[in-house]
Structure formats: C-alpha cells, structure tokens
Amino acid sequence: MRGTLPLARAGNWFVPQRLTATMNEALNATEIPFGTVVAPLRPIRRILTAAIQPQPEIILEQVALIRSGSGPALALVKEAYLSELVSAAPEPALWPRARDQRAERSALPTVRRER
Q: What SUPFAM superfamilies would the database entry show (predicted)?
C-alpha cells in the first residue's frame, strides 16, 4: 500500500508447524507482514515464476518459495503487482541524486537471495 492506494496483492500459503507459536499468533491476530514476522528465521526467497502481464490492472505476477535460512520451506507466495505501482512512483526529476553511491548502497538493508 502507498497510503490508501494498493500496489500489490499477495496470497501466502505457509506451514504453521514450521513457525513458532508467537509467529503464528502474530500472523493470525495482526496485520504484520509475513516477512516481518518470520525475519528471525532468516528467510531466503526463491522466485519460481515471473511473468509480465498484458492486463491493464496487473503488470507483473510472480510465484516465490520462501525457505528458512536453515533450509525447510516455510511458504509459497503468489504476488500480483498492480499498474498503480508504476503510476505511484515519483517523477525521475524529483529523485534525489546520490553523492556517493557506495555510501548509499551500504545504507541499504542486506537482502539474501538464492538462485
């Protein structure tokens, strides 16, 4: 979401037995995103399929497998990125210019990816 504007839809099928009781409670009782809840498991995301869609509402669909850092599969997620994602982006002329790209990259959070 960006304010009240939806930018993506996701369906997340997860294995509750592979999460802690606290994680399951958070997922069942709150709106905290799955990735935030399972972050202590150091999840790894592997994109299984990705396809650009010719539909006016959906610009990209993808399916990804989420595994814990120690290996077991935690979830399968199907995401649809909406065309509003592109229209909600600020104009390039408004983007701040990076003075030092190395400093900018080091300020970004580390993301683990598996190929």
A: Chorismate lyase-like
